[in-house]
């Protein structure tokens, strides 16, 4: 293999740049030419492809977002779109592709693999919802952003003796809510993976109130439902002063944490190693701090699961 490509796709996540840097530098270290494909699968179809040099990825390791930009591309979900993408890769002589992104992006890489084109997936999403890896690139940074927000809101919650509902990202996966709720000392954490009863939340709030608690923090993953609606219900049922804060897109950006930079560097370089060894059709991850790779054709069939023991612990600690 002489030429490889790299693209980022789907939602951006902090650490994607560190992963791009690792792919480029590791590739060049081993004598490869590395090409950047801009704007995800959309740029792949239209041929927005440029050779990257060592200096092209200088001064990006600490930056959030992605220097290759990212996009959602409906056309790539069609066979015609996928074939156009492969034609562009062939035109540039690119023999293997590293795809950095979330589950949807992995689907794209899976399709390329099914067409016989060598691809390696690198898990880049803040949601931590990709099977086959303990952590995804960007999760740790997003988590720390959320915790900073919770700590600040807690000051106000205490000063005003209020109940706060904080809605965080996570449509299908509750990892951000669970980890930030546990780290932020939330009284209640609502995640898509676990059913909840509003009466149970009310009971817990009232018990806390009776023993003199000055504030309560409730973390809601967006996949559970609207934080605003849950907040309204709590107010109606308790008459406690309740406020809602929807954190939104601040959770996506920002300088990646040291953990995400190291993870991205390791995973990006490992993806190149696999391509150099002629192993396409894989996706990389980290499990028990070891680099691992799995069959990309099979990995998406495995469900992502949250750590139920952490959920149980969060309930025990907020009794
Ligand atoms: P995040 O989880 O952060 O949102 P993601 O990678 O899951 O990231 P998606 O928007 O789901 O984000 O997917 C990104 C892109 O991957 C899509 O816009 C599309 O181009 C491609 N893609 C998604 N599903 C498929 C599919 N079934 N076949 C081919 N390509 C796909």
Give the CATH topology of the largest domain: Rossmann fold
Query: How many separate structural domains?
Result: 2
Tell how many strands the DSSP assignment holds. Answer: 11
How would you sum up the global shape? Answer: elongated
C-alpha termini separation: 58 Å
Query: Radius of gyration, rounded?
Result: 22 Å
**CATH C-level category of the largest domain:** Alpha Beta
Structural class: alpha/beta
**Which ranges are low-confidence, i.e. pLDDT below 50, for 5 or more consecutive residues?**
none
Bound molecules: adenosine-5'-triphosphate
Helix content: 40-55%
The biggest sheet, with number of strands, parallel, antiparallel or mixed sense and barrel status, is:
7 strands, mixed
- The CATH architecture of the largest domain would be 3-Layer(aba) Sandwich
The number of helices is 11
Run of helices and strands: EHEHEHEHEHEHEHEHEHEEHH
Average pLDDT over all residues = 96
The percent range for strand residues is 15-25%
Assembly state: single chain
- Give the strand line-up of the largest sheet: 3-2-1-4-5-10-11
Notes on the structure:
By secondary structure, the protein is α/β, with parallel strands linked by helices. Helix content is 42%, strand content 18%. The chain has 11 helices and 11 strands. The protein is elongated and about 70 Å long. The termini are far apart. Adenosine-5'-triphosphate binds next to helix 4.
């Amino acid at each position: 293999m002489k030429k490889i490509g790299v693209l980022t796709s789907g939602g951006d996540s902090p650490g994607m740049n560190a992963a791009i840097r690792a792919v480029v530098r590791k590739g060049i270290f081993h004598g490869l030419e590395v090409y950047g494909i801009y704007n995800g699968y959309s740029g792949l179809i239209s041929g927005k492809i440029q050779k990257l040099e060592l200096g092209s990825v200088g001064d990006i390791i600490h930056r959030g977002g992605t220097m290759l930009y990212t996009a959602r591309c409906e056309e790539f979900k069609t066979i015609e779109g996928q074939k156009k993408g492969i034609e562009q890769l062939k035109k540039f002589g690119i023999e293997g592709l590293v795809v950095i992104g979330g589950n949807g992006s992995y689907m794209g890489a899976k399709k390329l693999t099914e067409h016989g084109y060598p691809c390696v997936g690198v898990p880049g999403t803040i949601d931590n919802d990709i099977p086959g890896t303990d952590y995804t690139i960007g999760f740790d940074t997003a988590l720390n952003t959320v915790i900073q927000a919770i700590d600040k809101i807690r000051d106000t919650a205490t000063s005003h003796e209020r109940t706060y509902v904080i809605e965080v990202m996570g449509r299908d996966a509750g990892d951000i809510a669970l980890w930030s709720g546990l780290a932020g000392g939330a009284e209640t954490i609502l995640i898509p993976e676990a059913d909840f009863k509003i009466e149970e939340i009310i009971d817990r709030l009232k018990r806390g109130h009776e023993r003199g608690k000055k504030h309560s923090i409730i973390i809601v993953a967006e996949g559970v439902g609207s934080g605003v609606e849950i907040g309204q219900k709590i107010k109606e049922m308790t008459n406690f002063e309740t406020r809602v804060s929807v954190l939104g897109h601040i959770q996506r950006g920002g300088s990646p944490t040291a953990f995400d930079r190291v993870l991205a560097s390791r995973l990006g370089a490992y993806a190149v190693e696999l391509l150099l060894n002629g192993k396409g059709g894989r996706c990389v991850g980290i499990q028990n701090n070891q680099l691992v790779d799995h069959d990309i054709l099979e990995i998406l069939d495995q469900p992502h699961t949250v750590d139920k023991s952490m959920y149980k612990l969060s309930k025990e600690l907020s009794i």
